[in-house]
Amino acid sequence: MALNIIDLIKGQLGPALISQAATQYGESESGISKAISGLLPAVVGGMANNAEKPGVLDAVMGASSNGMLANLLGGTSNNSLITTVLAAIFGDKVADIVNAVSTFSGVNNSTSSSLLNMVTGATLGSVGKYASDNNIGASGITSLLQDQKGIVSSLLPAGLSLASLGVGNMFGAPEAEKVTVSSYDQPKVEVNRGGDTHSHPTPDNNNNEGGSIWKWLLPLLLLGLAGWFLWNNYNKDKTDEVVTTDNTEMVADSTDNMVNDSAMMATPVKEVTDIDLNGKMIKGYANGMEASMINFLKSDSYKNAADDAALKDTWYNFDNVNFKIGSATELEAGSEGQIQNLAEILKAYPDTKIKIGGYTDMTGDAAQNKDLSQKRADFIKSELGKLGVAAQVVGAEGYGSEFAKVPATASNDERAEDRKMAVRFTK
Question: Residues 6 or more apart from 257 whose CB is under 8 A from it?
Fold first, then answer.
């Protein structure tokens, strides 16, 4: 199975960066996330379709030594490599893409343009780092990029299309379905897939104008369905339940595809709010890890637990601690805040003890996965020690894929539930 480049890049565009971008640009986190979800497949598709162009290859190879990933938010606006790549893959369509994504996501054009640079920088940096780490040369990079062809139409979010981006069918995606009338006045749907056209008869229609009716009725039906889908998603609750009651629910990173702990772009953006810690306010997600742990402690459930056996099955997933790709000692910007919050909770309840757990999915080498998850658990334990609560962190264990449930053959989004760090109370 070919490497999915988007899996690499999503690790660089996690919740911490989205939150920082929303603050810097004065936009909502949901708007930033929505814009990125449209820009990312478009940029990857554009690079895939122009993989042989010298400007694209030079930019990818130069990105590994450019330090681009270290400052995605502030260092991509005037980067010559990014400018070169955007011109190579989109030509004079850059403004059209910016406008379309701005309209789709609700962010202003200036923000959409900055996010396009940021996403392009994350793409160049991620692919460049992967190529450097795996000793891949120019021909290998070209093949890697070309393997991504055709992904744009399947990964663009609902409500955004190649046509709305102003780039038509430039990425080699399947053409849209079209309705024709056969010689027997029977409407047929012709679907063009990679050059092969398949005709599927629709139910008989004795009206000789049946074909013309479908020509205007089908687009209206599709438009109505798209509007209904967007409206329902817009009103969907943006919070996720984070407390699990089974060890197999906890997840961490996989070293096979080097995807980090960041939430996938399809995950609804959570709301950051003030959480009351015995009169002291800390920032965290509504119904997130901190709020759930504090509620548990305030209920005296920890105090009344007879022994460790009464606590061992309730874990709390870290929902804002993200490691850099392939690293066990480097956190994404903004991740320190949740570790500091956890230390504050422990200080507020000095008799409380916890254990850190690290888990991976089933992909990759099992021994390497377990080693990475152990090192990450140890790192969080060490960071908490530096914050003055070492005595309350009594354990850190990396289980690798031991408790993973989702098969390695499943999609990356499905396997995401087996990739996170977690914490539980212990006696």
Answer: 3, 4, 7, 8, 363, 364, 412
Burial (CB count within 10 angstroms: exposed 0-12, middle 13-18, buried 19+), residue 250: buried
- Looking at the DSSP bridge assignments, the partners of residue 196 are 193
- Bridge partners, 243 (sequence order): 316
Helices (H), 76-160: 80-90, 94-105, 109-133, 138-146, 152-155
The 3-class SS string of 35-54 reads HHHHHHHHHHHHHHHCCCCH
Q: Which residues contact 100 (CB under 8 A, 6 or more apart)?
A: 38, 160, 164, 165, 166
| Burial class of residue 110, CB neighbours in 10 A (0-12, 13-18, 19+) | exposed
First to last CA, the chain: 45
Put residue 305 in one of left, alpha, beta given phi > 0 → left and psi -120 to 50 → alpha. Answer: beta
Least confident of 81-85, 221-225, 286-290, 372-376: 221-225
Please identify which residue in the block is written with the tokens 């897939």. Answer: 193
Confidence of residue 338 (pLDDT cuts 50, 70, 90): very high
Percent of the chain with pLDDT over 90: 29
| Residue with the two structure tokens 């929303």 | 22
Helix (H, G, I), strand (E, B) or coil at 174: coil
Q: Give the pLDDT confidence of 299-322 residue by residue, as tens digits.
A: 999 999 999 999 998 999 999 888
What letter represents residue 334's amino acid?
A: G
- pTM of the prediction? 0.44
Token pair in block for residue 398? 């990396």
Q: CA 422 to CA 420: how far, in whole Å?
A: 7
